[in-house]
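Hi R.,

Quick one: here's the DedA family protein sequence you asked about.
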Amino acid sequence: MDLATLPLNVTEWLHPEAWLQLFGTFATVGVLVIIFAETGLLFGCILPGDSLLFTAGILTAVSTINGEEFQPLPLPWLLVGGPIAAIAGAQLGHLLGARYGRKLFDRPDSRIFRQEWVEKAEYYFTRFGPAKAVVLARFIPIVRTFLNPLAGMLGMDRRKFFVWNCVGAILWTDTLFLLGHFLGSEVPDVERYILPGVAVILVLSVIPIVREVLKGRKADRGPNKNGPEESRPSLSGDSYR
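And here's the predicted structure, written out as tokens:
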């Protein structure tokens, strides 16, 4: 592969095609490494997630996207390796959170880190409860990176985390791989639908979250007038004692 043909604009590296071009023959391994990093390491929040899995699924059925030739990817390896990489990454995140606690997030805002991302992950953890949050977070960019160490920091039982981590990992990875494979097999010029397809997936995954938030707000408007204030995510950890 000619490195001179790769995109130089940083924002273009958010596109999955750029990463798949970079990995070339080792694209399958590269996809699994990105899945692991995005779910286990804090800097992974800047890596492509849903769009990469969806595009990888398409490349199990076609070898050309937007005129670019790609190495065809083996669907069985993705269906097995994807969940394993997602589970392993999340378990690492949980371990780091349990070991280092708040110090893991004690850093100033930068181009690849925002305290508001931690607060958002903590909000979902509080609002939905540990089990549901671990599963739902898989479908929310950035939150799926920060919720795993947050769960470890807040003392979520390791065995319980592992069970729901497995459920969420399998649903997230294999659903997107299979959806991409199906569309790649059945839809002509499927590359036109990569971004719309990811957008639809994000909307569908957000619907149950929005419903839960709305129900929670209705409950907060009840007898306790201070409900909304108490439900606001706090980084002090007092609400988990």
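The longest helix spans residues 158-186.

Cheers,
M.
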